[in-house]
Amino acid sequence: MAETDKLPWYALYVHSRAEKRVYAQLTDLGYEAYLPLISTMKKWSDRMKKVEEPLFKSYLFVRMDIRKYYEVLNISGVSRFVSFEKEAVVVPENQINAIKKYCNDYTEGDRLVMNDTEFHEGQLVRIMSGAMAGLIGRLAPIDNKKRLVVFIESVGHYLPISIPRTRVEPVYES
Fold first, then answer.
1. Where would I find the beta strands (DSSP E) of 20-89?
2. Per residue of the chain (174 residues), what is the pLDDT tens digit?
3. How many angstroms separate the CA atoms of 168 and 164, rounded?
4. Distance set, CA 75 to CA 34, 35, 80 (Å)
5. Local structure of 49: helix, strand or coil
6. Residue 82, C-beta contacts closer than 8 angstroms, at least 6 positions apart
7. Which of 8, 43, 117, 132 is the most interior residue, by most CB within 10 Å?
8. DSSP secondary structure letter of residue 150
9. Fold classified for 3-91
10. Phi, psi angles (nearest 5°) of residue 29
């Protein structure tokens, strides 16, 4: 196991459309960085093109020693660390792995619409299998379809995904 594998992950908020540039700077400086990208088709007036774009706009992840906080903060394009009570929030390794798996497995055509016969809006559910297995989210209606909305707490973002109801189970709140 490499020494950096023991370091925690942190989420960075970066300037709009600077994700790839900041990622390159971080890796050039020797940091392990992760920019979740998904392929999507974009339409211009004269053509369609497959492009890779960030899963979370203006966010990326860096594995680092917290003592390098100001060094990373001073990289051109970095706005701030995602923080709670003025402390950079550690992103759990399992969330990074789930995001990586989701991005690796993601294809726009593979989304399946969930049948909501046994679930209701706002219900807490756990994903049992697939790219996001183990994560917990809430059901919410989006575009007149039921979709599972996964809240990645340490990033503060909602990730809407359509998923078959057979891949989720209810989580009962106490």
1. 32-34, 37-43, 48-54, 59-63, 78-81, 83-84, 87-88
2. 556 668 999 999 999 999 999 999 999 999 999 999 888 777 777 888 888 888 888 999 999 999 999 999 999 999 999 988 889 999 999 889 888 887 877 654 444 333 343 567 777 777 877 767 777 777 776 555 555 666 655 566 666 677 766 677 788 776
3. 8
4. 16, 16, 10
5. strand
6. 10, 11, 12, 13, 59, 88, 89, 154, 155, 156
7. 132
8. E
9. Alpha-Beta Plaits (3.30.70)
10. -85, 0
CA 54 – CA 169 distance, rounded (Å)? 29
**What residue type is assigned to position 101 of the chain?**
K
Strands (E), the chain: 9-14, 32-34, 37-43, 48-54, 59-63, 78-81, 83-84, 87-88, 90-91, 124-127, 136-142, 145-152, 157-161, 168-170
pTM (two decimals): 0.65
